[in-house]
Amino acid sequence: MQPFPTLYVDLDIVRSNIARMASKAEKAGVEFRPHFKTHQSKAIGKIFREYGVSGITVSSIKMAEYFLNDGWGDITIAFPANVLAHDYYNNISKTASVKTLVISEEVVQKLDNKLDNELGLYIEIDPDYGRSGVPVSELERIKSLLNAIEGSDHCYPAGFYCHAGHTYKACSKDEVEKISREALQKLEALREHFPDLPICFGDTPSCSVLDDFGPATQISPGNFVFYDWMQVQIGSCSPNEIAVYMQCPVIETFSDRNQVLIHGGAVHFSKDSVQVDDYLSYGEPMLKYLSEETYVKSLSQEHGIIQCSPDVFSKLKVGETIQIFPIHSCLTADLMREYYTKDGQVLDHMNGKMGGS
C-alpha cells in the first residue's frame, strides 16, 4: 500500500476498451488513429499495436517526439501548427510521416518557408464547437486554404480534422448521439466537395455511442482508453469500463459533518468537476455504489474532502485508503505521471521519472 496518492490502472480494462473501439472502427470501415494524449505511456501505447494500430494522434510536438522514440512512424499532432516550432517539425519529419493542423493561409506560407521535409496538413474544421478551426460552413475559405497547401513546396493536404468537443456538455447517451450526428451531417459537404480527402473525426463520447460515422473515414478518440466519471455522466461508458482510479490515504475523519479528509488534492486530481444531481463532484469514491450521498466535495492543493453518507462514513478509517474514480482521467494522469498496476508494476508516463521529458 502506497502512503501517498497513487494512480492505479487496470490493464485488463484498458485492453478491453481498446479492443472494443478497434472492432467498432473495423466494422464501420474507418481507420483507427487513436489519440495518445490521455495515457501518454509507451507501455500502454504498445497494447494498441496488438489491435493493428499503426497511425496515432498526439496533442503536442513533445509528445510526438516521445512516441517517435518508441517506433511510431505515422503521427498526427492534433494541434494547430506552430510556426515557431519549425525546427521540431523538421527533426521529427526526418524519420516519420508527420501531420498537423492548420487554420489559415498565413500559417501555411510561413511554415512552408521554414520546412526542410514534407509535412502533412489537416485543415481543422470547427463543427460549431467554437474552440478553433475553420467553420464547416465556410467552403470558399476551405477551398482557398486547400489551394495554399497544394501550392506549397513542403506541405501536402492530409485531409480534414474535426473534434466535436461540445459532446462533453451532454448529459445522456441520446444527447451525445444527437450532437454527434449533427456534427457529422455538417461534414457531408466536405465529402461532397472533396471526395478524395480523408475526414478525421472523433471525440470519446461520439466514438463511444455511434456505430456509423457517416462521411468520416478516420476516428481519433483518446479518453476511451481509461474513461472516467465525467464519461459515465455523459453516457459514454459504464463505471466498470473505467480503467483508472486514485488510491488516497484517509488522514482524518469528522463525525460532526460526516466528512473525511484525504491526502489527494487539485495537484493530483485537477480541478475538474461534474454536476451530479444538486452537487458538484470532484471525484467519485468507488464506494459510491453504496450511497448516492458520497462524493469528493472539495479540493485544495493537497487536501481532499469527501462528503459521506452515515453508512459510508462508518466504514472509512484513519490509516486506511480509499479508491476514487477521477472526473477527468486525462488531467489526472498528466498530474500523477506514472501508473501502478495490480501486480506491482510501475508504468511510464511521458512526463514522469520513468518516461523522461
From TrEMBL:
GO terms for molecular function: alanine racemase activity; D-serine ammonia-lyase activity. Residues 243-343 form the D-serine dehydratase-like domain. Gene3D superfamilies: Alanine racemase, D-serine dehydratase-like domain. Its EC number is 5.1.1.1. One of its GO terms (biological process) is D-serine catabolic process. It is an enzyme of class 5 (isomerase). Keywords: Isomerase, Lyase. Belongs to the DSD1 family. This is Alanine racemase. It comes from Gracilimonas sediminicola.
